[in-house]
């Protein structure tokens, strides 16, 4: 029992004692004035006071039980937490993208919207198709899309580490920064699987979510520049995707009661 519950129980006992004392005082005065003519009324009054004491004790026990019981986290709060983590991850991606363009492509202003990677999820979507998705479909799609980006980041991180080791180049913080983003995606995937389990208790989280898809092989025909641009495309599209994912969580939160 916590301090609040103990205080509540003390207040209830004092209240019961006060009611009991008040009842006795009133009974005494009432009996002294008209004891001979109103014995039946005094007995009835005492019976009513006993009922009140029992009711107060039951009420106190109920309040203490409610106060002591753990309160589950509402689903809306879960979606809001996921929204905040998504925004934080997107901010981290934007910072890394700027740094990546400076170190790998020579300019933080580098832009190339013409190139795409076939293994990445599509960013553009039809509004009516998006708005009409069920909550389950929305969460499942988010889980699969984040998995795809996690795999691409893993491939790129290992590629950078391999190049640094082979060329004896000065080690950069890019692989470590990519790893931090992967951790954000991992936490988001964990939250999404928890939300899916909340919706369908029979649904089982994959035993090894991170190893579901093999890493993309590196074509030997690609130039160093092409490989560097691929890293830019991954971060560029991930930035856009996290914007879309944040809207998903806002929509889910708006449809959920607290």
Automatic annotation (TrEMBL):
Listed GO biological process terms = ciliary neurotrophic factor-mediated signaling pathway; negative regulation of neuron apoptotic process
What name does the UniProt record give this protein? Answer: Ciliary neurotrophic factor
What compartments host this protein?
Secreted
Q: Which domain of life is it from?
A: Eukaryota
- Report if keyword Secreted is assigned: yes
Q: Mostly located where?
A: secreted
Q: Which family does it belong to?
A: Belongs to the IL-6 superfamily.
Tell me the keywords, alphabetical order: Cytokine, Secreted
Tell me one Pfam family matched here.
CNTF
What GO cellular component is one of the record's annotations? extracellular space
User: Which terms in the Gene Ontology molecular function aspect does this entry carry?
Assistant: ciliary neurotrophic factor receptor binding; cytokine activity
């Amino acid at each position: 029992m916590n301090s609040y519950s103990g205080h509540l129980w003390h207040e209830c006992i004092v209240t019961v004692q006060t009611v009991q004392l008040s009842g006795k005082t009133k009974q005494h005065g009432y009996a002294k004035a008209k004891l001979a003519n109103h014995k039946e009324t005094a007995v009835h009054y005492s019976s009513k006071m006993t009922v009140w004491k029992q009711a107060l004790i039951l009420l106190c026990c109920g309040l203490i039980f409610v106060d002591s019981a753990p309160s589950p986290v509402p689903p809306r709060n879960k979606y809001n937490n996921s929204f905040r983590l998504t925004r934080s991850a997107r901010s981290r991606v934007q910072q890394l993208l700027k740094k990546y363009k400076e170190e790998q492509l020579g300019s933080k202003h580098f832009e190339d919207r013409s190139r795409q990677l076939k293994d990445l999820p599509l960013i553009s979507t039809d509004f009516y198709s998006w708005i009409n998705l069920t909550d389950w479909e929305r969460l499942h799609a988010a889980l699969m899309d984040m998995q795809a980006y996690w795999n691409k980041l893993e491939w790129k991180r290992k590629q950078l580490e391999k190049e640094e080791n082979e060329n004896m180049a000065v080690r950069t913080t890019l692989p470590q920064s990519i790893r931090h983003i992967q951790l954000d995606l991992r936490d988001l995937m964990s939250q999404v699987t928890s939300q899916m389990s909340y919706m369908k208790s029979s649904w089982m989280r994959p035993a090894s979510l991170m190893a579901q898809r093999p890493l993309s092989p590196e074509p030997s025909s690609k130039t160093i520049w092409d490989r560097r641009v691929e890293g830019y495309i991954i971060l560029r599209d991930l930035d856009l995707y996290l914007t879309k994912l944040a809207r998903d969580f806002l929509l889910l939160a708006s449809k959920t009661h607290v």
